[in-house]
Specification:
Layout: H1 2-10, E1 14-19, H2 25-34, H3 72-75, E2 81-83, E3 98-104, H4 107-120, H5 129-149, E4 153-159, H6 160-165, H7 167-178, H8 184-188
Parallel strand pairs: 1-2, 1-3, 3-4
Length: 200
């Protein structure tokens, strides 16, 4: 009943693709774009060696945590897909419904991928590996609690390795969760197994 009430009051949900950095969120956005879902992106961050097919990001996401920020653009994203890092999910306005595709990836793989990206950018990683893994584990626990208990969220967890291993199966899960009418084979075709370069 709560979900029905919220749908009547706040309308079509915003589709959110989320997860830790380097967890497959860009890949999920590619699948949604292939499905014909409108994606919210400003195109400022260009494709590169770390994400050859693009990042699908919008700079306004970075300001969600600011209390004085105008978040009206989130409401305008209803029915569209936007990529939002997991650390900012708590800052989304409660006056929208959200269908969240939450990407999961083995933390050692996330760590390795991020370290390689920082090396390519000549940026220092000041946190030790064990400390970083501990911080991520604590953060993910808090995020899962939020997604489970906050009425504005419906969530589908998608494992990065499952998408790589059986993209068609995971495309069907995503399609059904979002109630899309798209052929899942089109979504699955957007997955490039060769980009799975940092394996645990």
């Amino acid at each position: 009943m709560k979900k029905l009430y919220r749908r009547l009051r706040y309308g079509e949900p915003v589709i959110v693709v989320s997860g830790l950095p380097r967890s497959g969120t860009s890949m999920a956005m590619q699948m949604l774009a292939a499905a014909g879902v409108p994606v919210v992106t400003d195109g400022i961050r260009q494709a590169g060696e770390d994400n050859p097919k693009g990042y699908f990001e919008d700079e306004r996401v970075k300001d969600l945590y600011k209390e004085n920020d105008d978040r009206g653009w989130v409401r305008e994203a209803r029915g569209k897909a936007v990529k939002i890092i997991s650390f900012l999910l708590k800052d989304l306005p409660e006056t929208n419904n959200y269908k969240v595709i939450f990407m999961k990836r083995a933390l050692p793989e996330v760590l390795l991928s991020q370290k390689k990206m920082l090396e390519r950018r000549n940026e220092a990683d000041e946190s030790g590996d064990e400390r970083m893994l501990e911080l991520w584990e604590n953060h993910l626990w808090r995020v899962k609690y939020l997604l489970k208990h906050a009425d504005q969220f419906e969530t589908l967890e998608v494992a990065y390795s499952d998408v790589i291993g059986d993209p068609l199966c995971e495309a069907r899960r995503i399609r059904d969760f979002l109630e899309l009418k798209t052929d899942p084979e089109t979504m699955a075709a957007a997955v490039d197994e060769k980009l799975y370069r940092n394996r645990g």
